[in-house]
Amino acid sequence: MSKIVGIDLGTTHSLVAVVDSGIPLVIADADGQRLTPSVVHLPEAGAAPLVGRAANRLRALKPAETIYSVKRFIGRRGAEISQEEMLVTYPVAGSGAGPVTMQIHGRAWTPEEISAEVLKKLKTDAEAFLGGPVTRAVITVPAYFNDAQRTGTKRAGEMAGFTVERIINEPTAAALAYGLDRFKERSKVAVYDLGGGTFDLSILELRDGVFQVLATHGNTRLGGDDLDQRVVEFLLGKIREAGGPLTPALSPSEGERENDGAAVERTDALSTDSLSILARVREAAEQSKIKLSTETEVQIALPFLTPDFSFNCTLTREELERLTGDLVRRTREHCLRSMADAKLEPKDLD
Fold first, then answer.
1. DSSP one-letter string for 50-97
2. Which pLDDT score, from 0 to 100, does residue 292 have?
3. Is 291 a catalytic residue?
4. Do 100 and 111 touch, CB atoms closer than 8 A?
């Protein structure tokens, strides 16, 4: 019987781990990297998809064929997806009770199929590390995922060749990783999870060695991707001020924000050059955000956005906090709602 691996299938990054001699170990790939970008590039028909870092490197070069943040679509119907969510650099369509699809090279890909490609890579990495087949997995999902989203995640695992032994809530997995030995019986803990695409605050209680979810509240459209988008819009404004190309940001107008109708489809006719510029700006925005976690300012250089225009600017941590502060503050209402649902006050948490 093969080992069971644990998989964190994330919006922006995924990873696979195994328990070895009682110690959990995150498995590295052939390049020694333990985090795999949840990005899939779909080349012309007949060629195998590229996954992870290889795909991520193509986001700027071939944005319309490179899929990212697909976790936001998994297990959801077209009618449930807003215009804002569909504004990405690759074609997305969906209507009514039908699934969301990505139409690339004449084929409609589902979010489950794209997620399965990420899971296949993790499976291959685990098999190379363990020296044998790996067919059983436990996969984590946000605590507020509904049955359709959990079923979609399980289906993706099965498409990748796994027997999915269990779907576990991400906050429960976080509490288990923190260590049962740190808690006394009936301990209550809060897990604050601001991920790449989603946010939730979950209240857990330890009962007889098992974590029970008392309450959870969150937002499926609030995460690192949204912080990146704020920086993208800021940079595009600076590029325009400097006389650069007038590329529209991939964010909706106020009217589009209000239009969460039953049928939506991404139909904006941005040119390939515009999509490439947006992809480069988005990559620079994400990297600058990451660097500003440890530095007070970063230099952003985007040479030759067009043959006769290059862009440089400085972004400070203070500016980043100003651009994204309201998004982080938005998590507070979900924290308070989760605490209220659990009938607890902050002093009640261990």
1. EETHHHHTTTTTSGGGEEE-GGGTTT-BGGG--HHHH-SSS--EEETT
2. 96
3. no
4. yes
CB count in 10 Å sphere of residue 108: 13
- Residue among 29, 62, 65, 71 flagged as catalytic: 71
Per the CB < 8 A criterion, the answer to whether 214 and 205 are in contact is yes
Of these residues, 8, 80, 125, 286, which one is catalytic? 8
Catalytic residue among 29, 80, 125, 193: 193
CB atoms closer than 10 angstroms to residue 246: 9
Tens of pLDDT, residues 15-60: 999 998 888 899 999 889 999 999 999 998 778 999 999 999 888 7
Sequence spans of domains, the chain: 4-182
Reading phi first (left if > 0) and then psi (alpha if -120 to 50, else beta), residue 22 is in left
> 79-128, pLDDT tens digit by residue?
888 777 777 889 888 878 888 899 898 889 999 999 999 999 999 999 99
Cross-strand bridge partners of residue 281: none
**CATH H-level, domain 4-182: superfamily:** ATPase, nucleotide binding domain (3.30.420.40)
- Read off the pLDDT of residues 155-180 as tens digits, 9 standing for 90 and up: 999 999 999 999 998 888 888 888 76
Separation between Cα atoms, residue 95 and residue 250, nearest integer Å: 21
Q: Is 193 annotated in the active site?
A: yes
- Candidate list 65, 80, 112, 170, residue with the active-site label: 170
For the question of residue 170 being annotated catalytic, the response is yes
Q: Is 225 an active-site residue?
A: no
Closest CA to 226 of 330, 78, 103, 333: 330
Residue 83 CA to residue 98 CA, distance in Å, equals 16
